[in-house]
Structures are given as structure tokens and as C-alpha cells.
Design brief:
mainly alpha, single chain
């Protein structure tokens, strides 16, 4: 493990993986914020102390809450593969400059994707940021397979 921490590519990967994972983890509290501020809850126990009339009003969906939830789901679909593929790629000893370019583009694309999704920026901003992140992950996957392919 000490050898890995001396590897600059692995340290760069760890840094950017931690950044996007923390970003993804913050989507949970953001969803909670939108639920409370919009008065839209999905579970009976979340409104248990309210009157029957209040429960009916608050047990509902709200477009803003659903937007944040979809953004969180999109993070799960994209950040988890990035972390797995990025780790495998970091272990193949790529050039530091190439690795930093991949990691920085992915992190920037995911942060911008969140801003575009939550703030409802006009398309194609969200779509392009999603595509950029996917291209980075596919590029790393191709590099892993071309380095270690063993059939």
C-alpha cells in the first residue's frame, strides 16, 4: 500500500475519485433539503405527526425533488463505473499527464452536470457534460483492455 501512495497516478486517481464520490454523497442531503423546502415527502413516517389533511398534502412528488433524485441516480450510473475503471487504469501505470487530463475532465463534467441538472440549464449543456464524462470512462476502459487483454 505504501508503494501505491508513492505512485503519482494512483494519488491523482484517489484525489479525483474522492471529489466525485463526495459530490455524489452530497446529493442525498440536497434531496432532503428540497423535500423539506418543497413540503414533498414520499414515506408515511416522514409526515407521521401531521394531521390527516397535512399528510395528504405532503405525501406527494414535486418536480424539484424528482430532478435532484434523477441527478443522484445519474451520478450512481456514472461515478461508480469511473471509480472501478479508473482504479484499474491507474494500476496499468499510464502517463501522469494523460491520467490527470482524464480525471480532471471527468470531475469537471460531473460537477457541471449536477449544476446543469439541478438548475435546469437549457440543453444540450447537461447532455454534453454527461457525454464527456462517459467518453472519459470509455477511453480509460479501452486503455485498460488494450494494455491487459488476456483471452
Amino acid at each position: 500500500m505504501a508503494d501505491l501512495m508513492e505512485n503519482e497516478v494512483f494519488r491523482a486517481f484517489t484525489t479525483y475519485a474522492a471529489i466525485v464520490i463526495v459530490k455524489m454523497m452530497l446529493m442525498g442531503p440536497l434531496t432532503g433539503y428540497f423535500r423539506f423546502s418543497r413540503g414533498a415527502f414520499s414515506n408515511e413516517e416522514d409526515v407521521g405527526r401531521k394531521s390527516a389533511e397535512e399528510k395528504k398534502k405532503q405525501l406527494r412528488t414535486h418536480p424539484d425533488v424528482e430532478r435532484v433524485r434523477r441527478c443522484h441516480l445519474n451520478d450512481l450510473e456514472n461515478i461508480v463505473p469511473f471509480v472501478v475503471i479508473g482504479l484499474l487504469w491507474a494500476l496499468t501505470a499510464p502517463e501522469l499527464s494523460c491520467a490527470l487530463l482524464h480525471f480532471r475532465i471527468f470531475a469537471g463534467a460531473r460537477i457541471f452536470h449536477t449544476v446543469a441538472y439541478v438548475c435546469a440549464l437549457p440543453q444540450p449543456s447537461r447532455g454534453l457534460s454527461w457525454m464527456l464524462g462517459m467518453l472519459v470512462t470509455f477511453s480509460m476502459a479501452f486503455k485498460v483492455l488494450s494494455t491487459v487483454l488476456f483471452l
